[in-house]
Amino acid sequence: MPGVEPCPLCNRPASYVETQRPHRGKRFECVNCTHFFIDEVAEQVILNMVESTRSEARAKASKQAQASGPDRLYVMRAPKQNELGGDGHGVARSTMMSEWIPR
What we know:
By secondary structure, the protein is an alpha+beta fold. The chain is built from two helices and six strands. It has one domain (about 5-100). It has helices at about 40-45, 50-65; strands at about 5, 15-20, 25-30, 35-40, 70-75, 95-100. It has a six-stranded mixed beta sheet with strand order 1-2-3-4-5-6. Strand 1 (about 5) and strand 2 form a beta hairpin. The two termini are about 20 Å apart. The mean pLDDT is about 90.
């Protein structure tokens, strides 16, 4: 079901639809960040970051989303099992991945 909420990247009003493609999450349309997808895990990772880190991560992700061409969708998601890096002890585990996929 479509909705409107603050963009998780720039905090401006954005429309979204919940979807199962490419994963379970939301496809956003924002006047600033254009079109992008974020899954539930990545959205929580951003929300739980320390403010200074969150601001920097959101700004970087916003620029990456804006760089998407008409044939690509910027995706922020939880890492797949084979993408997990680090051991959690001295080497941080990957908590969020980003990539562009064909629309």
